[in-house]
Task: structure prediction
Amino acid sequence: MTTTHKSLYEDVQVQFNKAADLMNMNKGIRNILSQTANEIVVHFPVKMDDGQIKMFTGYRVQHNNILGPYKGGLRYHPSVDLDDAKALATWMTWKTAIAGLPYGGAKGGIQFDPTKCSDGELERITRRFTFALGNNIGPEYDIPAPDVNTGPQTMAWILDTYLSTRSQGERNNSLHVVTGKPLNSGGTLGRDRATGYGVVTTIAEWARDHKLDLAKATYIVQGFGNVGSWSAYFMKQKGAKLLAVEDVSGIIYSEKGIDPEELITFAKNNHGKISHYPNVVAISHKEFLSLKADVFIPAALSNQITLETAPLLNVKLVAEGANGPTTPEADLILQERGIGLIPDVLCNSAGVIGSYFEWLQNKRSEYWEMEEVIEKIKKKVIEAYANVSKTAKAHKTDLRTAAYIVALTRLEKAYIERGIFP
Ligand code: GLU
Result:
């Protein structure tokens, strides 16, 4: 079977139109939100370790900022392109609105494979990209954060490059130009685990509503980076059993269950990869997707649950740790098959919620305790889940469409209050 899938941004439009129709959204505001505001593409040179000069292409798409500064991650991956960045930026606008944060939406990254680069090359690529972005980012304007293949170290390089290009007086009040920083450089306790913590918090809310006992539940995870590994860590605390994990290096399965903490330690010493983990069985991608389990947490890239793969799933719930793992066609198949789904814009929103608390601490020159940060994240995620779930019931629709309605209603209100300049 061939896929009918065209572009990620078209997928966003399908989701958007469904919700906008259902809520009978104001036509003019619908037009505004169906477009991105700014699409920045930069080409920049970097000297590689072998002395050669290589050109790179970086993107930053800013979708909307009516509710506050543009906010969203930067990813390093060969799949990064303008279409991807537009889709991911738009999802950030919905995500921050659903969480009730004073932010808009943006996303970007560089199209390359970071696993083929040395640390020195990664640093030079990151710094030169930051320099090329110039005033297109800023602590009260557009605030990047980690995403696929970027992390606290990447943010430290961006921070340092950004501060180095500011005037002396501006430097100490610009710490919040990026979030997801290392602790010593203005990062917050809890940001590392925030997304996984939120994924599991939404799963627990869904489980309570659907009478699924997580202490007896089984689950599978795709991707074992920041989101996948921390989700597994918190699923263990709920007593759930991890049956299988898939990452770029392979797929591991154990009927008895895989201990997430042991796997995390193993992966740390194995360049982040899960391959060669002992006492497990290797299975195929098709076998992985067909496994009988209660929950599937896709926590890798987009377009994983498609027309071809949705019929294979044998789970009760898909919890989207990744952004855009399910295509609109697959959404319909899951609904027909009675498989629940917590949409990305709600499920993984604790990442940007954690970022918001880091940003606030930087603005106030404060450092909060881990428990305080986690408690605040929990409150926001539970509120967002309750709002979306209530909206789904009121509109008799799925959680993704309901999440969109929550976001679009907030944005529509802001536009109606302010009007359009001039
Ligand atoms: N990259 C994460 C996301 O997709 C976090 C964004 C942020 O913290 O700004 O939500």
Observations:
- The longest strand covers residues 53-64.
- The longest helix spans residues 370-395.
- Residues 6 and 240 are 36 Å apart (CA to CA).
